[in-house]
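Good morning C.,

I know you're traveling, so I'll keep this short. The sequence:
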Amino acid sequence: MKQLELQFFNSGALIYTPEKMRLLANPIQHPSQLLNEAFSNFISLKDKALVLKLILNIRSEEFEIEKKTSTYSFLKTFGFSDNFIELFWRPFCAGVFLDKELEVNADFFIFLIRNFSVGKVGVPKKGMQEIPLQMSRHLDSAKLKLGVRVKELSEKQVLLTNGEVIQAKAVVCAFNQDEQNDSENFRSVINYYFSTKEPLTWGKWLLIVPPQYGFHINNISVMSEVSTSYSSDERNLISVSVIGKNDPGESVVADELKRIAGFDLNLQFVEKFEINRALPRNYSTEQTGLKNGIYFCGDHLGGPSIDGALKSGRLTAEKILADF
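The tokens, ready to paste straight into the viewer:
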């Protein structure tokens, strides 16, 4: 973890409205921001109190909810107003779950919000690629095969499509075989990256865009503010997320960024990534699996997130060590 040199976002979010940016900060981690919106009518007093109540309640491991309750149903039952759900919870959760309908089970929502409230959201100093790169450095590069397809798996061997057979004491499958070939079983996101020399005041906050304002953009972050390593020429690197597979196109996204900022950003397009299989729609909390002698792990077992994938992989490795 230390080798990743994590760089952290602020805890909370900026919320776009046509009138002005509104800040909703985590009152536990940013107490100095408590008065920022305290006396405005943007968020009702009841919703403000419920945010604090939720954060304090879920910090207790004894906090329980009904099984198979959706995130949306939980938020309504907890008492949040429709206005606050649409302004904050829907775009915020959509950015995390890639689920604009808030269908994800509320138990996973509680798990993440608990972590968000007491911990910090961070990215590796040199980029997300550092996570697999650091893992690969512990492997024998001569035994690491990339860009090859698997034809068959069995308890003690793997057959590749080129005919090569790999013998092993244990075989691990880190994806869901039953759903891998059906893209409808996954949630999607399109990430745009732009750079600009224009000064921005969004800092290390995640900027969320409520769907009611008609933008394709769901959330924005200035990655070079979070980690200066993300820019080599002092330009601001902006990350923009569009949830789903409907790609509005570079010019539309750039125009929306300009309208959200309120001035011409003089954007330079950097790259676009269409991630059609970003997160599994269906998942369990079993963490590990064993079927026909093959070990299974992945975020479809541990929760749709990097955390879920890493934890599932670790627990599977521990299970293999114990079994052998």
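Safe travels,
E.
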